[in-house]
UniProtKB/TrEMBL annotation:
Record's protein name: Homoserine O-succinyltransferase
InterPro entries xrefs: Class_I_gatase-like, HST_MetA, MetA_family
Binding site for substrate: 163, 192, 249
Reaction equation(s) it catalyzes: L-homoserine + succinyl-CoA = O-succinyl-L-homoserine + CoA
Documented EC number(s): 2.3.1.46
Record localization: Cytoplasm
Organism of provenance: Shewanella pneumatophori
Residues annotated as site: Important for acyl-CoA specificity: 111
Protein role: Transfers a succinyl group from succinyl-CoA to L-homoserine, forming succinyl-L-homoserine.
Top-level taxon in the UniProt lineage: Bacteria
NCBIfam families (alphabetical): metA
Listed GO MF terms: homoserine O-acetyltransferase activity; homoserine O-succinyltransferase activity
Gene3D superfamilies linked: 3.40.50.880
């Protein structure tokens, strides 16, 4: 949360140059507070596990967050009961008339399927288009990031010869963005995908900014110049055992997966995984929720035109 300081205090300029967020007394006195309204479109097969992962990150902030869960269709799922979906999830028609402070769209196990061949592709495009008018900021994760970059900017992913699975070292490519406040120069993040975006195409696009990347895993965090869309190519929400569970699942299905990189102790799947990304994942979501949702969203959600971008 911001530090409130007296108007015109000389320290303000120094703190801001160090990426310490401060708020003047005048701004604080005129700021109304209300719960943040966040919508989660959960595309992952294991709904409950993904819900838990995301809510854990959203809960690691002093902000009050009201969450609605959204499903892409009402078809039965193999991994969760229809009662769970009917009791806790909403259909798009139930929320399309609303505005939200934030929207999170999860990854999906569709890495080897062409976007136009995805059964709910038209519905995904409709929700993405809707979000550009009804949501202050959207966080796209993994497959959703690739899908949104394709739909919004015409940038297509490259399919990989084998699955990119593991925990990879990343570096900041820019310093002065609120999203990166508190980030170390290098940090770890997990990936689990069959495709990646061309970093040079992302850098060349006039509406996008590559904030962090990996020498091995490519672009990781990409932000639109409007601040409305944040694309994260990996899975900061994953818990310690998730990559192991995916690896064992693929083994059981006879897919002969490679051992996730930089994940198991001594690179031995018989040993325990090492979680290196939890602090990064928590900071990423906290910064997004604070600086790109809470600090930008209008008090009255009916007035989305009141959103003003950060001066980065």
């Amino acid at each position: 949360m911001p530090v409130k300081i007296p108007d015109n205090l000389p320290a303000a300029g120094i703190l801001e140059s160090e990426n310490i967020f401060v708020m003047s007394e005048t701004r604080a006195a005129n700021q109304d507070i209300r719960p943040m309204k966040v919508l989660i479109l959960n595309l992952m097969p294991n709904k409950i596990e993904t819900e838990t992962q995301l809510l854990r990150l959203l809960g690691n902030t002093p902000l009050q967050v009201d969450v609605d869960l959204l499903r892409i269709h009402d078809k039965a799922s193999k991994h969760v009961s229809i009662d769970h979906m009917n009791n806790f999830y909403r259909d798009f028609e139930q929320v399309r008339h609303k505005n939200y402070d934030g929207l999170i769209i999860t990854g999906a196990p569709l890495g080897q399927v062409e976007f136009e061949d995805v059964s709910y592709w038209d519905h995904i495009r409709e929700i993405i288009d809707w979000s550009q008018q009804h949501v202050t900021s959207v966080l796209f994760l993994c497959w959703a990031a690739h899908a949104a970059l394709f739909h919004l900017y015409g940038l297509n992913r490259k399919l990989l010869s084998s699955k990119r699975s593991g925990v990879f070292n990343h570096k900041r490519t820019t310093k002065h963005y609120p999203l990166l406040r508190g980030f170390d120069d290098e940090f770890f993040a997990p990936h689990s995908r069959f495709a990646e975006m061309d970093v040079e195409l992302l850098r060349a696009h006039p509406e996008l900014q590559v904030l962090t990347e990996s020498d091995t895993a490519g672009a990781y965090m990409v932000l639109s110049k409007s601040n409305r869309n944040l694309f994260v190519m990996g899975h900061p929400e994953y818990q310690k055992s998730t990559l192991k569970d995916e690896y064992l699942r693929d083994l059981a299905q006879g897919l002969k997966p490679e051992i996730p990189e930089n994940y198991f102790s001594d690179n031995d799947p018989e040993k325990s995984p090492i979680a290196r990304w939890h602090s990064h994942g928590s900071l990423l979501v906290s910064n997004w929720l604070n600086y790109y949702v809470y600090q930008l969203t209008p008090y009255n959600l009916d007035d989305m035109s009141a959103i003003t971008p950060w001066e980065s």
